[in-house]
Design a protein that fits this description.
Layout (H helix, E strand, L loop, with lengths): L2 H4 L13 H6 L10 E7 L6 E4 L2 E7 L1 H14 L3 E6 L17 H12 L4 E6 L13 E2 L2 E2 L2 H16 L4 E4 L6 H11 L6 E8 L6 H6 L20 H13 L3 E5 L5 H10 L4 E5 L1 H12 L5 H15 L3 E4 L2 H8 L1
Parallel strand pairs: 1-3, 1-4, 1-12, 4-5, 5-8, 8-9, 9-10, 10-11, 11-12
Antiparallel strand pairs: 2-3, 6-7
Helix pairs in contact: 3-4, 5-6, 9-11, 10-11
Length: 328
Amino acid sequence: MSQTDLLNIVNRPRRLRRTPAIRSLVRENTLTKSDLVFPLFVCPGTNVREQVPSMPGSFRFSIDNAVKECKELWDLGIQAIDLFGIPEEKTEDGREAYNDNGIIQRALRAIKEAVPDLYIMTDVALDPFTPFGHDGLVRDGIILNDETVEVLCKMSVSHAKAGADMVSPSDMMDGRIGAIREALDDAGHSDVGILSYAAKYSSSFYGPFRDALHSAPQFGDKSTYQMDPANTAEAMKEIELDIMEGADIVMIKPGLAYLDIVYKTKERFDVPVAVYHVSGEYSMVMAAAEKGWIDGDRVMMESLVAMKRAGADIIFTYYAKEAAKKLS
Ligand code: PBG
């Protein structure tokens, strides 16, 4: 008796998986280089390129080397970066954040001069700029909202003056998107966009990033401003508010563990959706790969396309360079 006598299976989905050609014809989502944003850490000094201990393959760059890195990124086809800075000095008022000659402002001018078409976003939050490691100003152990928003406005305008294409407030203070929009417009920067970290969870996946920027909170955690990982409706509310206040793009963060939020956001709102494949997600893959337990490159590429499948238009990832090489 032959197999066909035994079984009469009409629907055979495996037909569409038989060869690479047919698989690529029916592929529903594709990762491209133009989806990627590379987060770049800038530190004081010259000729610095030091590996972040908890992020193998990820570096802190002094401005001169950051410029070189940006040329490489551009040549690889990465068109956008997000700048994070380690200031020369941390003060309780976080004033280095809006110093027109601060680390980010100088980096902006240097990179814009060398790679003028690279789209530069800048992180707007105070955590690296005060000794407390919190995203806002601190008084008596409380993270202040409105006082922080005023500083974030000054910081955003200072970044815009130095050449930022878009500011990315990652602080989760209430009302900051509307205030920053108004401050930018009043200063004549109506063409500078805002990517809002709209639904940013209070997550332990950020550990290695805080190592990279020397910005771990010195007391408590960030749960009075970042969101409870157990919540969904709250994310929808945060996103709606930020869009109403003028966010051009909204971000969900972290990535893989929050793809349900990405999916829901994409279904519900008509703005570009970004997702941040954060430091802890990166480091876990790198660590397991170093041990030979998983194929790190394949796990990274699978993670990135999963983010696209969930609905992300834009992906922030430390793996951007390697991904771009694989996509070439
Ligand atoms: C801080 C900020 C954080 C990240 C981006 N901006 C850390 C935090 O909120 O503590 C995390 C990025 C990452 O983990 O890769 N404003």
